[in-house]
Write a structure and sequence with these properties.
Low-confidence stretches: 6-13, 207-222, 468-472
Shape: elongated
Mean pLDDT: 83
Largest sheet: 6 strands, mixed
Distance between the termini: 78 Å
Radius of gyration: 35 Å
CATH architecture of the largest domain: Sandwich
Number of strands: 21
Helix content: 25-40%
Number of domains: 3
Structural class: alpha/beta
CATH superfamily of the largest domain: Immunoglobulins
Strand content: 25-35%
Amino acid sequence: MTRQRPSAPTHSAPSRAPLRAAIVRFLNRELPPGHRIQPRLLWPLYLCPWLLLVHLLNPSPVWVLLIVTLLGVYAAAWFWVRRQVGSIRLERRRRGSMLVAGDSLQEEFIVHNEGVLPLIWLEMEDDSYLPGYNPSQVISCGANQKYSWRAEATCEQRGVFRLGPHKLTAGDPFGLFRIEVQGRESEALLVYPRVAQLPSMELPRGALVGRDRRRRPLAGDDRSPVVRGYRPGDSLRHIHWPSTAHRGDLMVSEVEAEPSGDLWIVLDLNAATHRGSGATSTLEYAIVLAASLTAELLSGGDRRAVGLLAAGSGPLGPLSVTVPPLPGKGHLWQILAALAPAQTGDTPLDTLLRQNRQMVGRGQTVVVITPDMAATSAAWMAELLHLRRAGVVSSAMLVTPAAEDVAEDMAEGEARIQEVLGEMLTRHEISAQFLQAGTPLRASLTYRRRRTVLRTTPTGGVISQEVEEEVG
């Protein structure tokens, strides 16, 4: 067996590390935070001691010329980057403060060169996290000038994203040093879910007594024709004197309180029940329904208060959403902001309803949005019946999977399940509506905008054209 000779340790790399670190410290003296000069090519500088030794052993003007030229080039390159490192600044401006899924994000970038030397080349690297968005650019800019460009991307999906930070990279004409300017500022970008126009539907209105759906009284509470025995705490104003005289005991009239306008939207985010992916998934369609129903109720003439209950996951882990019912159009954006980062989790719908029984008050309305039409639907249906016994009326919006997510041999079975579930809900006086994921819905929040489009001509030229479009 042959023994391998141990390889001799190499001292060249470790010996150069302290020298390189010393050069880097010298280059970055008194620079502001986030600004840094990095050497790109140092090995020619290491030749200077050897050239000096060769000149001492064999004097010649050639060695002196090489040493002076080498040191002069490095000195000129260092002077160049040193003057430029503090004179580069990037400014970014975002157009529009609110973005809805499907809208276009537009940003303008302006590089300011406030120095006396031109920027031969500059690379802007952006670390934004937004699918399909890459505003990175390589530019050049003259002395005491600025260069601007625009970047645009369509926000295909809702959620919470990040714009920035960025990094600027430049260098000297010889390619010996590199300037790095690290931008530390970043901005959170919230893309709200799309709001669409829902098909016509009737939602029940809660009442404080019984489960009947009554008209709203114009002047306070109304007396009911139903009488009952007096209980401690009943107001003497509600004593029914004819019945009291007839029976010999105090009898009071039942009070029909003004129906409540408070409505809770309960969104099912259980991963075990959702199907499909992308815009046609049951998850995205259910969130669009929740956002659209909120917008429709808050903008209606009866001034209903809308709240939201959901339990899933978000960018930072488990997400529990509880938005108390409030009226007014301004409350819409609070609910949309809660829906934007929502993803599926592990909480079943019946557990969500059971955990929030105390949150839903008597006389309020619950609207459940769920794709759950399997055997587990009996569990959440039982919770709705429990709420009904407590004086809470309910309704269900059931999201069926898109046609491409259902196999042909399973389509008949899916239709049968929907029919049976619809009959069960109707039997228990729970109004239900089935909506298929992927069904086109017309956008509700829309506006018109003008933008510039570049078009090529048959001869190879480029012309700009202003177009007007409707955005939703």
